[in-house]
Amino acid sequence: MALKNPAKSAPAKARAKSSQPRTPRTDAQRNRDRILSVAKEAFTRDGANASLDDIARQAEVGAGTLYRHFPTRDALIEAVYRTEVEKLAAAERKFAATLPPLDALRAWMLFFVDHLAAKQIIAPALNSVVGGPTRIYEGSRSLIHSAIDALVKRAIKSGDLRKDIDSGDLLRALIGAFLVAPSPGWQQGARRLVDILIAGSRKAS
Questions:
Q1: What is this structure's pTM?
Q2: Pick from 1, 7, 4, 61: which is nearest to 29 by CA?
Q3: Residue 126: is its pLDDT beyond 50?
């Protein structure tokens, strides 16, 4: 029986290994996610001056790891906010895939209220970002509009909503509740407003 020459088979194994697509290290992604989670709580509690060393320690990573992911304080603050916005886009896809059209729209609007609450508590930190928070908000605006617009169009197509309903109107109503009454109880009122908006937008039977 002929034996395989290990010297000949090694290059083939190396080529096969090198042809496999590389993916980001899962531990690095976990570290990044932990840093963002801890940072959101820290900026909520202490504002923009939250200690980055404390954030790294609570996230159970070294300071060097934190700075590799987020070279500056502004980069970390911005990443915290963008992560919240990305959750809105992911929620739209999830609700659209798992719920009837009108239920999906309602669920997303409630989720958006929670997003506004998160934005409110990190707003003081956002003010410290070079160029101010406007630059960050503008970058996320189209993502938010696309999410609710897709859900509204789906509900109109299913016959649950009137054809004249504009997704921008619904969005402005929720943002208005946040801007006009940012008192401790505003979030509960905004959640009630979601049901009022949904009821007023339904197609007459």
A1: 0.77
A2: 61
A3: yes
22: left (phi over 0), alpha (psi -120 to 50) or beta: beta
Tell me yes or no: is domain 80-205 CATH 1.10.357.10: yes
Question: What is the three-class DSSP state of 69?
Answer: helix
Domain ranges of the chain: 27-71, 80-205
Cβ atoms of 74 and 53 within 8 Å: the answer is: no
Is 78:129 a contact under the CB 8 Å cutoff? Answer: yes
Q: Write the CB contacts of 105 (distance below 8 Å, at least 6 apart in sequence).
A: 95, 148, 151, 152, 154, 155, 161, 198
- Per-residue pLDDT at 29 exceeds 60: yes
pLDDT tens per residue, range 71-105: 999 999 999 999 988 999 999 999 999 999 999 99
Of residues 33 and 24, which shows the higher confidence score? 33
Does domain 27-71 fall into CATH 3.30.465.10?
Answer: no
The dihedral formed by the CA atoms of 190, 195, 197 and 203, expressed in degrees to the nearest 10: 170
Among 97, 92, 119, which Cα is nearest to 187's? 119
